[in-house]
Amino acid sequence: MVSQASPRFLSNFLGDRLALSAKPFHLRSGARGDRRPAYQATRTLCNLVDILFNRRSGDDTPENNPTRLRPGKVSPRLSVPNHIQRPPYVDSRQRPRVNNGPEIHDEKGIECMRASGRLAAQVLKFAGTLVKPGITTDEIDKAVHQMIINHGAYPSPLGYCGYPKSVCTSVNECICHGIPDSRPLEDGDIINIDVTVFLNGYHGDTSATFFCGDVDDEAKKLVQVTKECLDKAISICAPGVEIKRIGRTIQDHAEKYKYGVVRQFVGHGVGKVFHAEPVVLHFRNNEWGRMMLNQTFTIGTCFCICPQSPLAD
């Protein structure tokens, strides 16, 4: 069993939400750049990797803890046909841009967002059917990649900040943004599959956590409560609602089960740009901002069973 000093499992869900409000409300914060540290954490994972893999106690190393997740080999990057439209960041030496303000869609934009979100949901559903003991996350990545390009879309993660794969597969204690590799899934694993597609100039972003074989009750409960938090957060979205209510709603429900909310990862606006305003924090906060007409954003909840984890509250 995994040591109680580290998370047993972590779970991540992301859901797109089209928020409708009566009139625009401009976002503001106490100081310029207040949101940037939390936002950077979704794109720069070095500090997270260091915490998870380099700062363990002697009793929590892979050698002393055989159930600890071990990385496999990462296969070469897959190709995308030239006729498929690519996001601006692909094959660029510049960091992907992040909008400083919310993106508000016109009628055409709304239809494009629905199309990209619909395709992402279809791909995610298909990916979930592949989850079984013995399959590698690399095999899941190849299948997802093929389905996306077959529909004339580009897999958004591929080439984003150097990311080498077309989907994110996060197994057990990997919180999110896991890189598909040669490790076979094992009976009892949980795996979050995060799918984003770029179709007709718009990103559709979604994810879900799946059970592999016979999963124990502890993991099932974590996934169930995480999904409940997502549903509760979506249910309060409405015209003019303060964005910070999402974090309060999520943390209030998670704490009933003594789960820690991982603060290093956030929800975000999505549309023509992969990551945009608003930054959606999943814990209680005092950030300014309200949901706006024809705005799309993700809600992503990451929990760990062990509340004292350095990544949680």
Automatic annotation (TrEMBL):
<comment type="function">
    <text>Cotranslationally removes the N-terminal methionine from nascent proteins. The N-terminal methionine is often cleaved when the second residue in the primary sequence is small and uncharged (Met-Ala-, Cys, Gly, Pro, Ser, Thr, or Val).</text>
</comment>
<keyword id="KW-0479">Metal-binding</keyword>
<dbReference type="Pfam" id="PF00557">
    <property type="entry name" value="Peptidase_M24"/>
</dbReference>
<dbReference type="InterPro" id="IPR002467">
    <property type="entry name" value="Pept_M24A_MAP1"/>
</dbReference>
<dbReference type="GO" id="GO:0004239">
    <property type="term" value="F:initiator methionyl aminopeptidase activity"/>
</dbReference>
<dbReference type="GO" id="GO:0009507">
    <property type="term" value="C:chloroplast"/>
</dbReference>
<feature type="region of interest" description="Disordered">
    <location>
        <begin position="56"/>
        <end position="104"/>
    </location>
</feature>
<dbReference type="InterPro" id="IPR000994">
    <property type="entry name" value="Pept_M24"/>
</dbReference>
<comment type="similarity">
    <text>Belongs to the peptidase M24A family.</text>
</comment>
<protein>
    <recommendedName>
        <fullName>Methionine aminopeptidase</fullName>
        <ecNumber>3.4.11.18</ecNumber>
    </recommendedName>
</protein>
<dbReference type="InterPro" id="IPR036005">
    <property type="entry name" value="Creatinase/aminopeptidase-like"/>
</dbReference>
<feature type="domain" description="Peptidase M24">
    <location>
        <begin position="111"/>
        <end position="299"/>
    </location>
</feature>
<keyword id="KW-0031">Aminopeptidase</keyword>
<dbReference type="GO" id="GO:0046872">
    <property type="term" value="F:metal ion binding"/>
</dbReference>
<keyword id="KW-0645">Protease</keyword>
<dbReference type="GO" id="GO:0070006">
    <property type="term" value="F:metalloaminopeptidase activity"/>
</dbReference>
<dbReference type="GO" id="GO:0006508">
    <property type="term" value="P:proteolysis"/>
</dbReference>
<dbReference type="InterPro" id="IPR001714">
    <property type="entry name" value="Pept_M24_MAP"/>
</dbReference>
<keyword id="KW-0378">Hydrolase</keyword>
